[in-house]
Each structure stands twice: as structure tokens, then as C-alpha cells.
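Quick one, C-alpha cells below:
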């Protein structure tokens, strides 16, 4: 009888050992997935950095286009002033207006960059937080199962 009982216990232990190995395998698969997610996260970060650099270049191109447009306006204004023999104060006013427009454009570009940076940071933080909560929940479940199996042994 004792041998039969020991064989039954040994059978249960073998089943538990097999299930434990499966849990360990699952945990390693989860770890691999987490590594994959980390690498994807890094790739997305690099892509965002490249996008940010591209946005800076685009802003520079838009700024140049604005300056060219302003120069054309100034040139036309100078031609009109020359034709009308206007005074120096009109040219100064146009120059001041152009300078103010350039300052406003630069301010708007800086504000846009800040908003994009903050938005990217918030999205990144939310994604990391969600992953950590998921991992924490899975670890708690695995710990509960392990305690359950330990109590059964």
C-alpha cells in the first residue's frame, strides 16, 4: 500500500514537474516577447527622432520660403516706393514688419516643437506603463500558481 501511495505521489510530482517546466517555458517565451517589444520600442524611438529631425528641416524650408516671399514683397514695395518717391520711413516700416513676421514664425516653430516633444513623451510613457502593468499582473499570477503548487507538495 505504501509503495502504491508513493507511486501515486511520484506520479503527481511528475505531473507537477512537467507543469512547472511548461510554466518556465511560458515565462521564457514572455521574456523573449518582452525583448522583442523593447527592440520595437527602440526602433519607434529612432523613427520618432528621425521624424523630429525631418520636421526641423521642413520648418527651415518653410522659413526660407517665407523669407523669399517677404523679400519679393519688399522688392515690390521698394519699386513702388521708388516710383512714388516715398520717404525712408515707409521702408523702415516694411523692414520692421518683416522682422516681426520672422520672429513670430520662429516662435510658432518653437511652440510646435515643444508640443510634438511633449506628445511623443506622453505616448511613450503610456506605452511603457501599460507594458509594466501587464508584466506585473502576469508575475503575480505565476507567483500565486507557484505558491499553490508549493502548498500541494
Amino acid at each position: 500500500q505504501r509503495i502504491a501511495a508513493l507511486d501515486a505521489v511520484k506520479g503527481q510530482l511528475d505531473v507537477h514537474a512537467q507543469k512547472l517546466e511548461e510554466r518556465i517555458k511560458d515565462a521564457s517565451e514572455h521574456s523573449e516577447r518582452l525583448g522583442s517589444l523593447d527592440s520595437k520600442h527602440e526602433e519607434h524611438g529612432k523613427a520618432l527622432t528621425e521624424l523630429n529631425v525631418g520636421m526641423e528641416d521642413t520648418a527651415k524650408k518653410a522659413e526660407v520660403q517665407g523669407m523669399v516671399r517677404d523679400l519679393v514683397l519688399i522688392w515690390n514695395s521698394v519699386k513702388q516706393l521708388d516710383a512714388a518717391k516715398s520717404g525712408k520711413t515707409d521702408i523702415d516700416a516694411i523692414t520692421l514688419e518683416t522682422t516681426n513676421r520672422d520672429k513670430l514664425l520662429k516662435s510658432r516653430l518653437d511652440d510646435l516643437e515643444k508640443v510634438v516633444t511633449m506628445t511623443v513623451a506622453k505616448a511613450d510613457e503610456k506605452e511603457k506603463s501599460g507594458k509594466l502593468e501587464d508584466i506585473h499582473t502576469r508575475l503575480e499570477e505565476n507567483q500565486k500558481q507557484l505558491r499553490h503548487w508549493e502548498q500541494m507538495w
